[in-house]
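Whiteboard transcription, Tuesday session. T.W. wrote the C-alpha cells on the left side:
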C-alpha cells in the first residue's frame, strides 16, 4: 500500500472511530411490575423520558416483566430482568422493589410506586444510602382519609368495613395495613370498623358476603398488589352486594367503583423518568432524595352513586378531580 493510501485509510478509520464514539450509548431500562402492566402509566413514563431526550427505540430500550399480581414470582422475574443486562430497574409496587433489591445491590433501582422506607430498602428520605431511590405513595397512611370520605359521602353511616391483604407486609413481616390506627380513625368518625382479610381472588366473595351480613354501610379496599390486580372483580362484587366502596386506584372508578382517593399515579410515573434521567447522567441513587406525593386526587362515579341510591354531597363533587357522569 502506498504511503498516500495508508494515510487516507488511517484518516478514514480515525473519523469512523470518532463518529462511533460520538454516538450516545443506548440505555437499557428494566421495568418490573408487581401487578399487571398499565398502559396509561407506562405511557406517562415514556412521555417523561421523551421530555428529557430519551426516546424508546432510539437511545433507550425498555425491558418489562410483570408478576400479574403473583408476588412469589417476582424474585425469579427480577433475576431474569437483571440477566438481560439492564442499566437500571424501575419498579411498580413495593414487592417488585424488594425483589429487585434482592437481585442486585449494584444496579440502580427507581421505585415508581411503593413504600421504600417502610420496606427498609432505604435508610431515609433525604439520603437513601444505597442503590434504591424514587417515589413513595404513602398507601397505608391514606386509608384514614378514605374512611373520612366514606363518612362524608354518607353521614349516616355507622358501620364500615376494610378489606386488606394480610400477606402484604413491610420489612419486619408486619401487615402494611395498620389496623389499630385505622380503628382509631374510625372511632373518631363515630363508626364501627369490621376488618376483613383476603389473601386472594377465591376469598373475595366470602369477604363481601361477610360485610353484607355485618350490615356495613360501605367498604374500604386497602391498596395492595393482589387487590389492585383484581380491580374488575372487586368492583363487580361491590355492585352485586350494593355496597359503596372507596379504592386507592382511580382505575377502579372508571370500571364502575364509587370513589377513589390517592396520589396521581400518572404524575408519579412521569416523575420517575426524571430519576432515570439523572442516574443515566451519572447521579448516585444513594444521594437522590425519595420524593413523597404532594398532590392527591379524588375521583367519583356519579352513575354508580345513582345506581346505589346515594345523593353525593355537592361539596364532595366540587372537590373531586375526576367526576364520571
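and on the right, the sequence the group agreed on:
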Amino acid at each position: 500500500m502506498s504511503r498516500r493510501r495508508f494515510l487516507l485509510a488511517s484518516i478514514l478509520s480515525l473519523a469512523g472511530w470518532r463518529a462511533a464514539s460520538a454516538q450516545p450509548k443506548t440505555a437499557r431500562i428494566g421495568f418490573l411490575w408487581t401487578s399487571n402492566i398499565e398502559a396509561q402509566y407506562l405511557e406517562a413514563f415514556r412521555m417523561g423520558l421523551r421530555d428529557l431526550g430519551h426516546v424508546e427505540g432510539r437511545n433507550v430500550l425498555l425491558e418489562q416483566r410483570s408478576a400479574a399480581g403473583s408476588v412469589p414470582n417476582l424474585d425469579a422475574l427480577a433475576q431474569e430482568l437483571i440477566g438481560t443486562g439492564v442499566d437500571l430497574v424501575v419498579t411498580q409496587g413495593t414487592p417488585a422493589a424488594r425483589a429487585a433489591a434482592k437481585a442486585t445491590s449494584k444496579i440502580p433501582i427507581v421505585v415508581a410506586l411503593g413504600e421504600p422506607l417502610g420496606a427498609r430498602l432505604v435508610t431515609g428520605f433525604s439520603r437513601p444510602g444505597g442503590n434504591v431511590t424514587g417515589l413513595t405513595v404513602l398507601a397505608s397512611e391514606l386509608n384514614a382519609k378514605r374512611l373520612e370520605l366514606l363518612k362524608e359521602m354518607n353521614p349516616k353511616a355507622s358501620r364500615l368495613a376494610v378489606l386488606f391483604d394480610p400477606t402484604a407486609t413491610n420489612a419486619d413481616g408486619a401487615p402494611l395495613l395498620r389496623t389499630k390506627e385505622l380503628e382509631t380513625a374510625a372511632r373518631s368518625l363515630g363508626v364501627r370498623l369490621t376488618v376483613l382479610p383476603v389473601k386472594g381472588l377465591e376469598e373475595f366473595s366470602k369477604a363481601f358476603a361477610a360485610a353484607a351480613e355485618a350490615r356495613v354501610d360501605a367498604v374500604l379496599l386497602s391498596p395492595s398488589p393482589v387487590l389492585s390486580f383484581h380491580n374488575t372483580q372487586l368492583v363487580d362484587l361491590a355492585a352485586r352486594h350494593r355496597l359503596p366502596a372507596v379504592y386507592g386506584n382511580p382505575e377502579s372508578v372508571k370500571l364502575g367503583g364509587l370513589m377513589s382517593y390517592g396520589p396521581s399515579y400518572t404524575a408519579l410515573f412521569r416523575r420517575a423518568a426524571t430519576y432515570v434521567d439523572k442516574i443515566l447522567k451519572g447521579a448516585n441513587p444513594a444521594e437522590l432524595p425519595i420524593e413523597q406525593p404532594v398532590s392527591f386526587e379524588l375521583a367519583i362515579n356519579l352513575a354508580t352513586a345513582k345506581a346505589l341510591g346515594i345523593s353525593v354531597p355537592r361539596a364532595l363533587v366540587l372537590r373531586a378531580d375526576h367526576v364520571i357522569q
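Someone added at the bottom: Residues 226 and 233 are 11 Å apart (CA to CA).
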